[in-house]
């Protein structure tokens, strides 16, 4: 079914730059476990346009596919305070630089403020400054699953009321419904409980409305309501 969706509506309408970046990623050794899928990229691109997002954040860039999908969707006039419109964080700059020439060629690199390093200290600094509370329209989290709960504790104060946080991989390769003795890859098994814990915490959080979508590996959208 996914192949049908990809072939009928995703691949034919995928912007050339996103296609090109997907090719770069496909040659990277982490591709299989790391990359955001084409249907997710297209979904993010449309979602951002629908909510008229201007000020966004991404945690977990890798080679930049979801970042490019975001940058292509955002308007030119999104600068808020000292940030450009996408604050993008990753512990690895090398991978970001693999995709960067394509992002530059697409004419959207100026929308990105890339910070190399772990995201949590940057979030803590922003919260301490107090200037960015409630300022983000959209935040996409696609990084270390064992920190998602820690991200959520901070992001809830940084996203604006009515804004969205999207957590990626909340179906975790289907492992969220796998029996305890299921033969899972080591990587999948290691993070499974963290994803389950996150899903439970989001479902019980009264500060958000949530919607879990089977797009890509599962995205949970959280709309801040208080
Ligand atoms: C699944 S990949 C991101 C995929 C990307 N969104 C895309 O479109 O292809 C996860 C990324 O999170 C990064 N990462 C892991 N731990 C991190 C941390 N503590 N802070 C920021 N980034 C982190 C990894 O280096 C990796 O590039």
UniProtKB/TrEMBL annotation:
Q: Which InterPro entries match?
A: Cation-dep_OMT, SAM-dependent_MTases_sf, SAM_O-MeTrfase
Q: Molecular function (GO) terms listed?
A: metal ion binding; O-methyltransferase activity; S-adenosylmethionine-dependent methyltransferase activity
| Keywords from the named record | Metal-binding, Methyltransferase, S-adenosyl-L-methionine, Transferase
Q: Which Pfam families does the UniProt record give?
A: Methyltransf_3
Tree of life domain: Eukaryota
Per the record, the GO terms for biological process are:
methylation
Q: What does this protein do?
A: Methylates caffeoyl-CoA to feruloyl-CoA and 5-hydroxyferuloyl-CoA to sinapoyl-CoA. Plays a role in the synthesis of feruloylated polysaccharides. Involved in the reinforcement of the plant cell wall. Also involved in the responding to wounding or pathogen challenge by the increased formation of cell wall-bound ferulic acid polymers.
Instruction: Name the family the entry cites.
Output: Belongs to the class I-like SAM-binding methyltransferase superfamily. Cation-dependent O-methyltransferase family.
Q: What is the name of this protein?
A: Caffeoyl-CoA O-methyltransferase
Q: Which organism is it from?
A: Linum tenue
What broad taxonomic lineage does this protein's source fall under? Eukaryota, Viridiplantae, Streptophyta, Embryophyta, Tracheophyta
